[in-house]
Amino acid sequence: MLVLDKVSVSINNKSILQDISFSVVEGEHLSIIGPNGSGKTTLLKTIANILPFDGKILLEGTNIVTMSRKNIAKKIALLRQLTHMYFNYTVFDAVMMGRFAHREGGFFGGISKKDKDIAEEMLLAVEMYDYKDREVNTLSGGQLQRVFLATTLAQKPEIILLDEPTNHLDLKFQIELVEFLKKWAIKEEITIIGVMHDINLAIELSHNILVMEHGKIKALCNERELIDKKILNQVYDIDVTEFMKKNFLRWV
Question: 241, exposed or middle or buried, with CB in 10 Å at 0-12, 13-18, 19+?
């Protein structure tokens, strides 16, 4: 179980997150939504212990600030919003980076057959195996996003943090990605916490939805409650429900 207890974050004396408290059980899927600037990405980075914070984050009862970076990487993987890599690795080598926490000696440790098998399995899963010998900087944005996802999955974490994972992907692969993540998480008993820009994809991915506004939790609820309570209308300052209904009618 992952537990956040009164977590707050300030950057350059500016409050970004305020008194964030919630818990996620093993195998749960949680989507985080909210307007730009509401603290969604900061929350993911905080859970991954990348940013300093006040309060407590407990992972299976252990305070995350007492854990080594390598031990955190064995438990938690963060798929960030990235558009390029600084070094022009091959696709296969990029995915192999996801195995560093499991290798003796980290990045400089030896590569086992298990590491190679897992990397190939992940490339097949995201439909990038045929590109494994290509240099990553020759890929399109959508292809690169798939490589980043494969790298994250190769880490074999217990919790995957996704920061708008469908960015740069066409509609077909957005839908396929969400379906893949759901099935993969069930198969591997993985917890998913994903920041999603598209509300419909957020609902499709997750059991529960965490709605954020101005660095605070506005609501933590299921799909039905999200719609019935008109929380989205308040947070986005528009009639989201009416907009969704009007667009749906175009297709029927």
Answer: middle
What is the spatial distance between Cα 17 and Cα 43, in angstroms, rounded to a whole number? 7
Instruction: Say if domain 2-83+157-249 classifies as CATH 3.40.50.300.
Output: yes
Residue 183 CA from chain centroid, whole number: 15
**Helices (H), strands (E): how many in the chain?**
10, 10
Distance between CA 100 and CA 115 in Å, rounded?
9
Q: What pTM does this model have? A: 0.86
* pLDDT tens digit at each of 252 positions of the chain: 899 999 999 999 899 999 999 999 999 999 999 999 999 999 999 999 999 999 999 999 999 999 998 889 889 999 876 656 667 789 999 999 888 777 655 555 567 888 899 999 999 988 899 999 999 888 887 888 888 889 998 888 999 999 988 877 788 888 888 888 888 888 888 999 999 988 999 999 998 999 999 999 999 999 888 887 788 888 998 888 888 888 888 887
Distance of CA 26 to the CA centre of its chain: 15
What the block records as the tokens of 231 is 């929380």
Residues whose CB is less than 8 angstroms from the CB of residue 135 and which lie 6 or more positions away in sequence, other chains included = 88, 89, 90, 91
Q: Report the 10 Å Cβ neighbour count for 37.
A: 13
